[in-house]
Design goal:
Layout: E1 4-6, H1 8-14, E2 21-27, E3 43-49, H2 50-63, E4 68-71
Parallel strand pairs: 1-4
Antiparallel strand pairs: 2-3, 2-4
Length: 73
């Protein structure tokens, strides 16, 4: 199963593609609502270089049987 990582919201907010070191949120929702969404089932937070942590996010998405996840701004 292939997982698509949508970066549209991130790119629109930061005017650049996600890259480099940081704290990253990947969600199954286009927008993240911390009051309603639960870490682990609706989103994950990772820290590190984007090029490495996106692999963690893909593995999480596969475990959730998701075909698309969203990088949050």
């Amino acid at each position: 199963m292939r997982v698509s990582i949508n970066t549209d919201q991130y790119t629109a907010s930061h005017l650049s593609r996600p890259a480099g070191m940081g704290s990253w949120f990947f969600s199954k929702h286009k927008s993240l609502d911390f009051d309603q969404h639960k870490e682990g089932s609706d989103y994950i937070q990772t820290r590190g270089f984007y090029s490495k942590v996106k692999g963690e996010a893909e593995a999480w998405a596969k475990g959730q049987k998701l075909s698309t996840i969203y990088v949050q701004p």
